Amino acid sequence: MVPRLAHLIARLVARCIFFAAATVISSAVWAQPADFRGQPYLLLDTATGQVHAHNRLDDLWHPASLTKLMTAYVVFEAMAAGRVTPASPVRVSGAALANPPTKMGFPVGTILNIDNALKMIMVKSANDIASALAEAVSGREKSFVASMNRHAAALGMTRTHFTNPHGLHDPAQITTARDMAILALAIASKYPQHEGYFSIPAIRFGKRRLRNHNALLERFPGANGMKTGYICASGSNIIATAQRDGDAFMAVVLGGRTGRARNVLTARLLHAGMNDRLAGLERPGLAQLPLDADATGTADDLTSQICGRRRAAKAKTAPMGAKPPSLEELEDLYLQPRQRVGQDVRVHLGKATGPNPFNFRMVDGRTPPPLVPLPIWRPDRTREPVEG
Fold first, then answer.
1. Coil, helix or strand for 193?
2. Per-residue confidence (pLDDT) for residue 242, from 0 to 100
3. Would 128 disulfide with which of 2, 29, 103, 336, CB 3.0-4.6 Å?
């Protein structure tokens, strides 16, 4: 018993020392494990707009499902203009259903409303529903994507280009850590009434519980949004927000070699911001940071590193020099075990009684019986989701 107690005390002391050091060490000199060395990231105080840390801020990157934040933004704009409401219909088309996972898998002709569709794309990251939303708001996905790019330009996302509303890989679909932060800040400032879509811990459909891909909601105290993304070409991306003891921060992390590494780096950034002993120091905002003249002109394609045969071997390769803390040690320091937070939200089909600008075939806000008598729950069952 005594040796075990001594071990626990030593571990607690080590944790305290590590945390104390983390509050005074600049992000620029962090000892970083190989899992997240050199990838783009950004830490921003959302109350002041000041940037506390950044790396490869303007390098081009594939957004993956972070794309769905712009999809949501365009839908919010359409609702604000009165063209649609949360109760407006979304119909699953053949083209929408044909998208690869992650997806809900509802049959062609299934009707749901915009409110439930937004919950599905934010929590489940459903690619089929993202396409269906685009068709519901703009008639055609191509028209919706044009709106996405117009809004990106208007917001000042100068290095972003969208080709689809879901984030499945297209070499031409690109963004940067800076541009994703601009979008997230625009959503928060212009549409605070919709912030609940980005903090749902899980949705329930029938007997199934579909957990949010953003594990920080359950593992980082104070986390309250927003969205994750993953494809082989981009690695694991995230925009995460957190608020604690009057501090509010946003972290953007792109290119995590694993979801675990992404989550640890994100938690580490948020922790550093909330424990910054130089909090009174004046720092530049995003607009004051000049565009990096050395930023990459093409987006990295990480497919061989993330999904190739050598992935496991590369993940274990340590950098030269002093041994940094391991990913496991950092996870233990910055992330707590999963804890249920908030309330699960039940989603439904039908209940689509709002404006129907493109005249989907409807029967009292439900799926038309001639098309599909009983919508069947068909979740994707791939071992590793193509997108999330």
1. helix
2. 97
3. 103
Per-residue pLDDT at 333: 85
Does residue 363 form part of some domain?
no
Residues 28, 141: contact at Cβ < 8 Å? Answer: no
Compute how many other C-beta atoms are within 10 angstroms of the C-beta atom of residue 61. Answer: 28
Host domain of residue 233: 2-346
293 belongs to a structural domain: yes
Number of residues in the chain: 388
Instruction: Quote the number of domains for the chain.
Output: 1
Instruction: Band the pLDDT of 370: cuts 50, 70, 90.
Output: very low
Closest CA to 111 of 387, 359, 344, 345: 359
In a domain, 81, yes or no: yes
Strand partners for 40: none
- The CATH number for 340's domain is 3.40.710.10
378 residue type, one letter: R
Is the confidence at residue 8, as pLDDT, over 70? no
Q: How far apart are CA 158 and CA 163, in angstroms?
A: 15
Tokens at 274, concatenated:
């909330």
Buried b (16+ CB within 10 A) or exposed e, 314-352: ebeeeeeeeebbebeebbbbbbeeeeeeeebeebebbbb
The residue with tokens 């609940």 is 196
Instruction: Give yes or no for a cis peptide into 226 (omega within 30° of 0).
Output: yes
Cα 149 from Cα 135, distance rounded (Å): 16
Domain annotation covers residue 38: yes
